[in-house]
Target: Allantoate amidohydrolase
Amino acid sequence: MRAVARCDLLGEVPFSDEVDLLFRPWLGPGFHATVEAVSGWMRAAGMTVRRDNAANLIGRYEGLTPDAPALLFGSHLDSVRDGGRYDGMLGVIAAIEVVAGFHERDERFPFALEIVGFGDEEGSRFPVTMLTTRAVAGVLEEDDPDAAFADLRDSEGVTISHALATAGLTPLGMAAARRSESDLVAYVEAHIEQGPVLEAEGRAIGVVSGIAAQRRYEVKLHGTAGHAGTMAMGLRRDALAAAAEIVLAIEKIAQSYDGKDGLVATVGSMRVWPGVVNVVPGDVVFTIDARAGSAATRDAAVASILELIENIAARREIEAEIIPRENLAGVPCDPELLRLLEAAVSDVTGQPARILVSGAGHDAMIMARLVPMVMLFIRCEQGISHNPAEAVLSGDVDVAIQALTDFVRRFAAVRD
Ligand SMILES: [Zn+2]
Model:
């Protein structure tokens, strides 16, 4: 109840930079106000609070011994423009409830509990994402050795350098937020599902097996442009008609997996030349985005898709150029943590845990480069996210808090 109310409170001015909608970009006034409010709730939950060199907010609840390594809960404090109240924020707020519960019972573990609120998961201010997460994971220098991100600008022309300076920080200095491996025992992220699976199955929460492997292509189809009134149907090499056939065939291939391994494929963008009413389209460029829980499943689907593009193009005498654009490996959750979270979820819900793939990226996929990681998904209404209509049931959030609490105890038991 309190967790949802807190997220709701943070959905408005002064925690948003816009009056009529929620927009909380990294290092904006709403972001700073949010850090203040969340800091207060962390302290009330028995935590000490600090900000690191990447402007992340970190709360710490000590373990049985001082300086013990930490089990780190995390999620992001920023939001997209016209976003929802629970994306990111709920992961931080729910973790505070978990710690508050332990604090009330004065229950402590052989490890400390920490909660990190990351700054720029969404990349809603600058054209880059998860810099602050990469700083903590210690991979910021590896990904961008010269801090070239420093000169990127927001829509008002403010550079990242300048935005950091207002908080007394520097781009190169961000790397000092790095945590050492020996300092952390696990990373746990709770997040709204941003998908419809849990709701469709009537479940409050689910366990994430990993973040999807992703592949993107750009496809260029080249036919023959011609007069729409005089070019005979039998002689046409219509690039858009070919693209239409390909799009529907891609949908059919993806549907044939029936959700297996979280396989999805999307044509999200298409441009048509010359794009006028009285000309048969000569050229089309479109994108393909394919994702699945494993690279093997994704690549099998992609192979079928590429083969069908070749076939349809050949039959229609269209030239097809297929350009690979991105190939991101999937990020599996740690098997041991997964097993513990699965046990916690079945215990709390009284039914076997639903295991699902995250089609979206999260802070967890960066943190996995440093420390074993696992994620918990919380049902959200109709799977809607990045939208003011985002909604959760407070009963579901309570179940999530219980499962995370149970998980921490199980984790302590196996480490004993
Ligand atoms: Zn998010």
